[in-house]
Amino acid sequence: MSNWIAAHLWLIPVVPLAASFAILSLTNSRRSLAASLAVCGQVVAFVLSLAAFWPTLQTPGYRAFHNFTWFTFGEQALRLGFVLDPLAAVMLIMITLVSLCIFVFSVGYMAADEHFTRFFAYLSFFSAAMLGVVIANSLLLLFICWELVGLASYLLIGFWIHKPSAAAAAKKAFITTRIGDLGFFLGMLWLYGRSGTLLFYDGGNGALEQTALLSLGASATFIALLIFCGAVGKSGQFPLHVWLPDAMEGPTPVSALIHAATMVAAGVFLVARVYPLFSLGALHGVTASLTVVVWIGVITALISALIALAQPDIKRILAYSTVSQLGLMMVSLGVGGVAAGIMHLLAHGFFKALLFLGSGSVIHACHDEQDIRHMGGLRRVMPVTFVTYAIGMMALSGVPLFFSGAWTKEEILHATSLWSPSRVPYWLMLIGVVLTALYMTRQMIYVFFGPRRTAAEHAHESPPVMTLPLIMLAFCAIVFSVVLTPAWPWLHDYLSGERPILNFGLFIQQALYLALVLVALGVGLGILIYRRASEIDPVERALPPVFHFLRNRMWLDELYDRTVLALARFAAQLSDFLDRYLWDGIVRFLGALAQLFASLTKGFDEGGINARVDDTADAARGFGQLISRVQSGQVQVYLSVIALGMVALLIFYAWLT
Amino acid sequence: MTPTLQLFLIISAALFCIGLLAALSRRHAIFILIGIEMMLAAAGLNFIAFWRFGPQPAPPTGVMITIFAIAIAAAEAAVGLALVIAVYRHYRTTNVDQIDQLKG
Amino acid sequence: MSSLGFFLIAIFTLAAGLAAATMPKLIHAALCFALTFVGVAAFYFLLGAEFVGLVQVFVYVGAVAVLIVFTILLTPRDAEKDRSFKWSGAWIALVVFGGLLWAILKTPRLGTAAPVISALSVRQIGKILMTDYVWPLQCVGVLLTAALIGALVLVMEEKR
């Protein structure tokens, strides 16, 4: 059984892919069929993921891989493959489960949209690509699926094709991630060049196994950093985070799936996957590449948390929150807490999706209003949404005990505090935790508490098809924490390949108290500041310049526009100029040369050759005319000639004899 | 001195050349005819001279030729003069320099 | 053979010929032309071909010369003085004479005296005409007929 699923791991992405193609062939009217195909595809994938999860539970440190040759060129062969290990297994489960919930939610959310079938086709396609990323055993296969994920996200962000802002956002997302992917590609090429293989695990010959790693030497750092570029782009780390907030132009289920749970997680997953490259030659768990990861993660986490504090759009707040949490995950990976980072990734997947779907429910209820300043007091009219949203918020903020986010954050903070090069990330992370609680409290108060402002006046609870997934995800968010507690660090040990041991003594730790204090501080501050929330944000009233700075996303987009984009525009204009005048000029010059040559030939032909022929003809004619003068028409001339000829003959004859 | 054959030949040659002169040096068409007749006469004289100074007894071949030559000359003169009249009627001129329609 | 007669006739003939070639007036030239033929006939008599000489007088002087005179009368336009004289013709005639002279003088054994011959009677000529030369005779007859008809056709006025 375990061998069968390991060998047929490719079925997991292929089933949603087949569903996607099947849906594409349907017309717009076959809605229920499309939705059923998509949901069934996901269910099958989920079941298969559970089947794949089972063998990894049996053995600690389980790893089964299955490689095949894609094509050969000359004597070399390009091999791809699939791998099944704890990391892949948990990711599979999280992705398929969250996707399933979101698919069901979308049936209700997108019911009014006329391109319903196309939406589900794209969703299935995305799911297939993401699953491909997770199970890939070859960096090349991962890259291929990575790019497909990027394509799917482009299609989904720009789903409402009639909206220019959506199209621009999709383009921005694609191009920004492309910049990161360029680094990824270079890293991949370098790795292939140095080690001769792109397979991760190949029975000892893989790129992540001892022999290949040792042959890399110092270049491992650079390769790792180049691959990290891809992660920076995909996971929205600073400086390539600018696409993520704009990506909120897509429908809310898209934001939930892609930008909360799965796609952005791909970057973190990538770092975890190629971790041996990062950690090669580590001294106390510190290498140059990992240090870079830590600092970028810290900066990202802090900046986006600050910006989230000043955003009025409900989805934007969540988007920046995602960026911040991803930064946190990167920090975790960087300081050596790989299992902790992945755990937070999984937990984050659940509760962020929950929060996005909840916001979707709110938006739907408020008739597509997204500004929190126009909402309020929704807790009375949308109880289910309110409760599930609150659960999600508490999980995100890190309220301890029942909520998964707390345990994982605690683990991360613990690992960060132990980082030898510097304690600064640890303190900054603490501030980050406070900020997280602060902005989430702000959002909660604005949306669910206080007087019912403009858009919330006619709100009502969403239909069950939308609320059921919310409940499901909330349940997961709570239950998940069971496997995350330090008392039974099952997931942690599962991911690290150790045997989990149950120890209730570790239940209450020092870090737990610290987390409790921080969260309480954050929530308390939030209530204090925002208790009288109104159209004008209290912070804006108090510190206008600071608020303005944060509201405009620290002017980073504008900075990019002035510098990078201006450079690109200049380059484009320069290319156009060169093309128009230089290359075109050369081409035209060559054309003129050809024309010159042609006219020369023509001239030569006409003047040189034709003229000679004409001259010859004229000469013949002239000669003829000359000769014809002999025919004077005069009898006496003829007679003279005869007489003279006769004499000549006579003399000749006489001379002969 | 006794007239030798050579002398006769010289005389006939001279007459021939006078005929040629007449034919070539005047502009009137009839002069050409006159010249031609004179040339024919000179030729006949040649024939008779050769017959006379030839080995004897000789058949009268020279004489016969001359007789026929005279007859033919007459016919030719008749036709030639008719031609001159016809050409005169058409072109209103007897100046041979002006009758050059066969000019190439 | 009398050499005096020869020279007289020779001078007479050549002079008449020259006159015929060079006289400005056409009628005069035609009449001198007739005189030339008289001289040639005299030559014939001198050479012992009397019949030919008479034929010469009849045909040439009587017929051809008269014909020419009549033609001159029929083409009155240029019957006036024709004073032009092409010297090129004279040169060519001179050249031809020179050539002929050279050929004659170059030929050896031409300086023999005239042998004695028996007289050629008309009877003999007639006999030969009807026997050996009957075909040429007939042909000449046809030729003369043709020439006559041809001349008539040429000269005939065109019917309107």
Describe the structure.
The complex is a heterotrimer of chains A (657), B (104) and C (160). Chain A has 657 residues and is mainly alpha-helical. Chain A has helices at 2-7, 11-24, 31-58, 86-109, 116-135, 139-157, 164-195, 210-216, 219-234, 243-246, 252-261, 263-273, 275-278, 288-308, 314-334, 338-365, 383-397, 404-417, 424-448, 464-479, 490-496, 510-530, 538-542, 544-551, 556-628, 635-656; strands at residues 64-73, 76-84. The longest helix of chain A is centred in the last third of the chain and has 73 residues, at 556-628. Chain A is elongated, with a radius of gyration of 38 Å. The model of chain A has no long low-confidence stretch (mean pLDDT 83). Chain B has helices at residues 5-25, 29-53, 61-91. Chain B is an all-alpha fold. Helix content of chain B is 74%, strand content 0%. Chain C folds into 2 domains: 1-77, NADH-ubiquinone/plastoquinone oxidoreductase chain 6, subunit NuoJ (Four Helix Bundle (Hemerythrin (Met), subunit A), Up-down Bundle), CATH 1.20.120.1200; 122-160. Helices cover 74% and strands 0% of the residues of chain C. Chain C contains 6 helices and no strands. The chains are: A mainly alpha (657), B mainly alpha (104), C mainly alpha (160). The interface between A and C is small, with 10 and 13 residues.
